[in-house]
Amino acid sequence: MGRVLCIANQKGGVGKTTTAVNVAACCARAGLRTLLVDLDPQCNATGAVGGQPTDRHPLVKRSPLGEAIRPTEVDQLDLLPGSRSFHDVDHLASAGGSESRLVSDHLSASLSLYDFVLVDCPPSLGTLTETALATADEVLMPLECEYFAMEGLTQMIELIKRVMARRNARLRFGGILLTKHDPSLELTNEVEAEVRDFFGEVVFDTVVPRDVALAEAPSHGQSILDYDPRSRGARAYIEVCLEVLDRE
Fold it and tell me: Where is the AAA domain (predicted)?
């Protein structure tokens, strides 16, 4: 099985789905067979690559995930779409320990055909995020360059540590990615300096800039590479992808 990278942050609006979609697209463009897994009930990652949410989530149905995986318009990129079903969301979010392990095992069993798997998590510390972390090799945490960037970070790191401490766990901390970066703002520079000083080499060298093209691309069902390949956002995510590959 290839690398499984979980994109997680309990705070919404930090560029989590944007990162999952665009790193997945970059990996696919690099010739890696890539799967984008949408575990967020908002299904934004599904729509961002031109897909449609399913009536029932494949992880709840327990049917072979290969039957639910869909190709996208990007060569080498497949999608396991999310579901907005309230019943399925409640089921996945409230799963107990044994049920959570079954979901994780079911997901893991279908990933062997891919070189790279990107899992887009919901903005929460719930069971669904914990299940995704238990399935992954690495966790990448997008962090917005804003005043409340550090809020809740401790709880997220504690969850990651808890999963890493489990027997047979393979999860490692893949890094922190600074997003919505605007060097003209003093606040952005203060947040970046504080994060880099505290976390050191864990923080990606690349930062993702504020770029309207990144906000527009999902409404067209495209990654930033297809929507505006010459944009600052596209260049940034290509560099992020290269860093991810270098950190293997």
Answer: 3-172
CATH class, range 3-246? alpha beta
**CA-to-CA separations, 94 to 81, 128, 130, 239, in angstroms, rounded:** 20, 8, 11, 37
> Using an 8 Å Cβ cutoff, are 8 and 121 in contact?
yes
Q: How far is the CA of 69 from the CAs of 20, 54, 79, in angstroms?
A: 17, 11, 5
Q: Where are the domains of the chain?
A: 3-246
| Strand pairing category for 77-80 and 70-71 | antiparallel
- Closest C-alpha among 101, 98, 103 to residue 88: 103
In which element (H, E) is residue 17 found?
Answer: helix 16-29
Dist CA 244 CA 34 (whole Å):
14
C-alpha dihedral sign at 37, 39, 43, 45:
negative
> Do residues 217 and 224 touch, judged by C-beta distance below 8 A?
yes
Q: What is the bridge-based pairing of β-strands 138-144 and 70-71?
A: unpaired
Query: pTM surpassing 0.70?
Result: yes
φ, ψ at 152 (rounded to 5°): 80, -5
* Structure tokens belonging to residue 160: 């990651």
Separation in Å, CA 148 to CA 15, 153, 161, 185, 188 = 14, 10, 22, 15, 11
